[in-house]
Amino acid sequence: MLEGYTGYVPRSRFLIGTGYPLTTNRAMVEFSLMNLKKEVRFSELKGHNEEDKLQQDQGHIYLEGLGLLPRYTGYVPGYKFQYGQTYGRLTHNALGQSTLEKQVIN
Asked: What is the pLDDT of residues 53-83, one digit of tens each?
């Protein structure tokens, strides 16, 4: 992990008793193993072939269309000066349109 990183680390929530570097390392190892298990289960499906596996997009970890995670402290483009709704709705809206698109609409 990068020094000073304060964002979300998958699988680190319940790892306790060690320092941040060890906790994040262990969490990322668990996360990687969990993804490998998903790939094994996918290959066991009927009608599976290698072409399906190649077409899977491995770059997306989280579901799109949802707001950001609670307690996320990173930058959200387009989120500045947004108010009046829940954090999840605001981040979803902020990520859905660029600032330029919002200015054209308003």
From this structure: 545 555 555 555 555 666 777 777 777 787 7
Positive or negative, the CA dihedral 30, 31, 35, 41 is positive
Q: Is the pTM of this model over 0.70?
A: no
Helix (H) or strand (E) holding 29: helix 20-43
> DSSP assignment, residue 74?
S
Instruction: Say yes or no: 72 and 57 in one domain.
Output: no
Residues 50 and 29 in one domain: yes
Dihedral sign, Cα of residue 17, residue 31, residue 11, residue 59: positive
The burial class, CB within 10 Å (0-12 / 13-18 / 19+), for 17 is exposed
Burial zone of 44 (CB within 10 Å; 0-12 exposed, 13-18 middle, 19+ buried) = exposed
> Is pLDDT at 10 greater than 70 in this prediction?
yes
Cα(43)–Cα(54) distance, rounded to whole angstroms? 12
Same domain, 98 and 57: no
